[in-house]
Amino acid sequence: xxxxxxxxxxxxxxxxxxxxxxxxxxxxxxxxxxxxxxxxxxxxxxxxxxxxxxxxxxxxxxxxxxxxxxxxxxxxxxxxxxxxxxxxxxxxxxxxxxxxxxxxxxxxxxxxxxxxxxxxxxxxxxxxxxxxxxxxxxxxxxxxxxxxxxxxxxxxxxxxxxxxxxxxxxxxxxxxxxxxxxxxxxxxxxxxxxxxxxxxxxxxxxxxxxxxxxxxxxxxxxxxxxxxxxxxxxxxxxxxxxxxxxxxxxxxxxxxxxxxxxxxxxxxxxxxxxxxxxxxxxxxxxxxxxxxxxxxxxxxxxxxxxxxxxxxxxxxxxxx
Length: 320
Fold this sequence. Notes:
- 21% of the residues are buried.
- Strands 3, 5, 6, 9, 10 and 11 form a 6-stranded mixed β-sheet that branches.
- It contains 6 helices and 11 strands.
- β1 (173-183) and β2 form a beta hairpin.
- It is 20% helix and 20% strand.
């Protein structure tokens, strides 16, 4: 039996060896000739151009990167963010001050053309021991470094392309609405009755006294300075051109709102109507029109280009 097993193993190994002999080994053919392989490229095609230390790119490279964008400081943990040239510029120029001095003197971190109103310059030159001079955990910037930053600000704080930006000039914006009806001297909130969908038109009963309140805010203005305050109603969300303009009523701003919005001052408007004058059992859309002193034309809220669910939010249905 052992001889039979041994003989069988010999046959198997001989068969494997015979199979291996059937494989034909060959060589990989050479790659086709590439004429570009004969070109000798220089080590550097474009010579390195030194960065002007007086430009914002130079200020970022030689000052912000080495002195400020260090771990635990302006490395993206908080603003200004000095990790890149773009993030540094976008978090400095006309960006609001979050930690001001006790007098609240400064509005923006950098005001192009105005060194004395630029919080950045104040922070790197201040002698206020409580506030602290930047860099907070390092030696004071040299006079030359401070002058480079000062000169950049005084020359309009240009970006990496040499362009100076203008002060932000936003149109008025809405932060919501409230609607209520008056029943026997009591106000009943109805703007939340939207058939289970927060953006569905809110439902109001017929022949009821409805008041719609609008909250608006604008950039760096004192309250009650809007010069155009109108409202329009339409059953066609795409056509308000023939709708009658009706006047909104301005209201004084509660003082407790002043600290909630910073430089964005809130405004309050209302419009009262008896729902018997509105179409029944139809979606009635409404838009408001306000204008601040910085713009030549009133702004429409919501506009025809606003997402439709927002347009639907500014709408109602009168029950028959």
